[in-house]
Model the fold of this input.
Amino acid sequence: MPAVIHQPDTIEKLRILGRDGQYDLACACGSTKDEHRKRGPDGNWIYPVTLPNGGKTTLFKTLVSNACNNDCLYCPLRDKNDVRRCTLGIEETADVFMQYLQARQVFGLFLSSGLTGDADKTMARINAIAAIVRRKHGFRGYIHLKILPGASPAAIEETLRLASAVSINIETPGAEYMAKLSQRKDFLKDIIEPMKLISRLTAKGTRYERVKSTTQFIVGAAGETDKKIVRYMTGLYQRLKLNRVYFSAYQSAPGAESLSAGKENPTDRLMREHRLYQVDFLMRKYGFSDADILFDESEKLSLEKDPKQLWAEAHPEFFPVNINNADKFTLLRVPGLGPRTVKTILDGRKTGRISRLEEVMRHGKLLQKAKSHVVF
Ligand code: SF4
Done:
């Protein structure tokens, strides 16, 4: 008797593909502590997120396919692994997204995929789904589309036509680290060249200026140091004008290769991820430069102390800061003071002097931290 092959229905496919898409945080799933790797109550494919422009929304997020021809050692979906593979149809994906949208359970779409065939074939499937959602259903909201390494300029341009945001994952800070993880991905040709093209096509004054561009590093898979990641991140912001950089701690998921570099304690890798997000915030919102970030002798960030606290300890000459006349970026150097409190201070100074921190912030650990660094 022939074996009966059970064909998964749409929800079963979403269960598999939503789960397999969870490690990609470049859609902004995981940029704040509260929503870190959180999924919606209805399934693995619904994610609360903070978008690159700071807005909050809920995304329908899935892989279109978890079949993949690639060989990335850190990934459970690499070609040689024996995992259950499935692919969503083009109309099927568009329809199910529209159903969730009409039920007001999601407000945006994130699509990624394993590499099925070549990069352009895969991009054609992703773009076809987005085209139906945009052109047939008239959806004008947020769509984030993944650009596959090796995608051609024509495929990238079609993606930019349809998307509100795009991302191509850089994964490692340099070709030498990528070579440890994949024999097939050409770091410069498949990843950096498309990133440069996206940067040119989305620059100010161009046709796709409205499209946001993000990327993601995998942390702890290739033996890379935090310092290398921070240097690369600085270049991505300054030279390629990326809107956001995300980090995903390598997790030895079932089927993923047990990497020797990945023998670092998983909790430490998650803390490295957290510290890299803090550095990212300091550089984007607090006026820190990469030269202000302190690393230990093995070029790692401290797991025990946050990078702003370490900077303050290394610069006692900078303190105390006068709350009543320091400028915004001087105030932002004070441990415990974040952008919101600094804004309250600056607003409060317009109407009079501040004589106690309690006037501008709540009691708690942050207030205690700030107290020893300020005068009035
Ligand atoms: S390209 Fe690499 S990281 Fe992406 S799904 Fe395939 S094996 Fe995984």
Summary: The domain at 10-292 is CATH 3.20.20.70 (TIM Barrel).
